[in-house]
Design a protein that fits this description.
5 helices, 6-stranded mixed sheet, Maf protein, alpha/beta
């Protein structure tokens, strides 16, 4: 199975290549296109991106939408995670602004979770969605050189340090990795069923 990735994010392309290694072939789209992500949910935005790239390049497409959900500020990030603090272009600055917000408001409730929704767009009649989540809490300081986005301030449930300090663990248990596992399980089962009928 071959898909193009509906994203210009090189980090995502690299991560998906590793996660789908030797199972589903994921390649970068020939070019990035502008997609207006108007959805109010991760699933809606993943669909919008997948459909846009499919219609442009006429080939099966994989898109994902992911973000960080804060229990103390449920409306702050979510589907707007990448657009938080637009005046701060770097994620280091965005992370620091979030930490400052917790400190300034003296928020004790730091639980949060990452969400990833994958949309596999095979045709206008065949579209599949898979979700993965990673629970944890917001740290008190930035830590770690691995990962990207909000990884340096997110401590996974049961771990003593941020995701940015746990690259090997992340490859297996992140929200994106869990969504991928759900997808692989589904496609493998259905491919096996198809082969058994032949």
């Amino acid at each position: 199975m071959n898909f193009i990735l509906a994203s210009s994010n090189s980090h995502k392309a690299e991560e998906f290549s590793e996660l789908f290694s030797n199972t589903i072939n994921i390649s970068s789209a020939p070019e990035a296109i502008d997609v207006d992500e108007t959805g109010t949910t991760f699933q809606e935005n993943a669909f919008i991106k997948a459909q846009s790239y499919f219609k442009k390049f006429k080939t099966p497409t994989l898109a994902d939408d992911s973000g960080l959900v804060l229990d103390a500020f449920p409306e702050l990030l979510g589907v707007q995670s990448a657009r938080f603090a637009p005046e701060s272009p770097s994620y280091t600055e965005k992370c620091q602004k979030l930490l400052n917000l917790y400190s300034e408001k003296d928020i004790k409730e730091r639980t949060a979770h990452f969400v990833c929704v994958l949309c596999f767009y095979l045709s206008d009649e065949e579209v599949y969605f898979f979700e993965g989540r990673m629970k944890g809490e917001i740290a008190h300081h930035i830590s770690g050189d691995h990962g990207f986005g909000y990884d340096p301030i997110f401590i996974p449930e049961g771990k003593p340090e941020s995701v940015a300090n746990l690259p090997e663990w992340k490859n297996e248990f992140s929200h994106r990795a869990r969504a991928v596992k759900n997808a692989l399980s589904f496609f493998k089962e259905n491919v096996d069923k198809t082969q058994n009928k032949l």
